[in-house]
Design goal:
The chain is an alpha+beta fold. The protein has 14 helices and 7 strands.
């Protein structure tokens, strides 16, 4: 690790917290698989990741069938979780359905309990992005994963990408070679492959994946659905949005697309850059920045609107007070002997000054400005 990672990067980041979860067995693709699980927490990002590692002693004839079964297996945990979080929505619930008797609790309950426990020690984000993301990684020796098989696994298709040269797709990282299409990654061990090199690549894969998830989370920050509004949720106020802008700009976006700051090993850096490119982290980063600008604009508009409301409230109070004063002036002037002409010449200017402050002329000004632009356009 000291050979590959910059100490300055490690010094500014809390260690990844790892915890082993109970093991299990599952039938996938007609084959019994053993799985181990590890919970990983990235404290500086506020991201939890649960890694499943599946292995089998049986011969596997159709790995793509295994992949399809993995999707069905994890969705029996994922979709009920979305329902519990109120994120399923009418549109999605009409398209996917999990029978109650087939529901599983693989890790959804762990995440819910973890979130509740952590909330006692840290201030949670003011929003919850309930959807999670997954990536699959195939690990084997090169003699077991021929180029044709590797193409199928990279593109999750029985035909693979026939225009792609699998040999040129792989990058070497020590005693292993790596290729990725974004959603699927293949790690092939070379002669005398080292478990340390495999673990290093998996660590990079996890970190790049968390960068993608951070951007995805912020792209959807502070989204409140119609059903949530009906349930009593409210849009964030200006103070919360301001804090989110600061967190997004200072803490999260500074983390992504800074691989040179993280790594000093050219070989590992090339693998990380290839993974980042296939995960399209840069596009997600740009979209998250656009979201930041939208939040900033919304915050300013919200502040301007509140200032305008306060100004109009002040104008209303002033108008009431001034009107009462002018109304009280008329009988007072008559009482001290002012003629009707003197009263009119005294009150009219005061009423004019009152009208300048009490009446909102902004709609009229906007109408005049629109008409002026329309006439100017005709002249040109």
């Amino acid at each position: 690790m000291l050979r590959s990672w910059n100490l300055s990067y490690l010094a500014g980041h809390a260690p990844i917290i790892r915890h082993t979860l109970p093991e299990g067995r599952v039938d996938l693709g007609g084959v019994v698989w053993r799985y181990t699980r590890q919970l990983q927490l990235f404290p500086w990002l506020g991201i939890a990741s649960i890694n499943y590692r599946l292995s089998s002693d049986e011969a596997v004839a159709d790995l793509l069938r295994v992949y399809d079964d993995i999707i069905d297996w994890k969705n029996r945990d994922y979709i009920p979780y979305l329902d519990r979080m109120g994120a399923l929505g009418a549109s999605l619930s009409n398209q996917v359905a999990i029978a109650p008797e087939s529901e599983l609790d693989l890790h959804a309950g762990i995440i819910i309990r973890l979130r509740e426990a952590v909330a006692r020690f840290v201030e949670p984000r003011p929003f919850l992005y309930a959807f999670h993301d997954y990536r699959i990684c195939w690990i084997g020796d090169r003699q077991d994963l021929a180029d044709s098989t590797a193409r199928q696994l990279l593109w999750l298709s029985s035909t693979g990408d026939t225009t792609d040269d699998a040999e040129s797709t792989f990058f070497r990282a020590g005693t292993v070679e790596v290729a990725s299409s974004g959603w699927s990654t293949v790690i092939r061990g070379l002669t005398r492959a080292s478990d340390i090199d495999t673990a290093s690549v998996l660590g990079l894969l996890n970190l790049i994946h968390t960068h993608w998830c951070v951007c995805q989370m912020w792209i959807n920050a502070h989204e409140v659905t119609t059903s949530q509004l009906r349930a009593g949720w409210r849009h964030a106020d200006a103070h919360v949005l301001s804090a989110s802008q600061l967190a997004l700009a200072a803490a999260y976006l500074a983390e992504t697309r800074n691989l040179n700051v993280m790594l000093k090993d050219p070989e590992m850096l090339r693998v990380a850059e290839d993974l980042e490119a296939h995960f399209e982290v840069s596009k997600h980063h740009d979209t998250a920045q656009a979201r930041l600008r939208a939040l900033e604009s919304h915050t300013r508009q919200l502040g301007d609107y509140r200032s305008e409301v306060e100004l109009r409230r002040f104008q209303g109070l002033f108008a009431i007070s001034a009107a009462a004063s002018v109304a009280a002036l008329v009988p007072a002037l008559a009482q001290i002997g002012f003629s009707t002409t003197h009263i009119i010449t005294t009150v009219v200017p005061l009423a004019g000054i009152w009208a300048l402050f009490a009446v909102d002329y902004s709609p009229l000004r906007r109408s005049i400005a629109r008409e002026y632009r329309r006439l100017s356009g005709r002249e040109h």
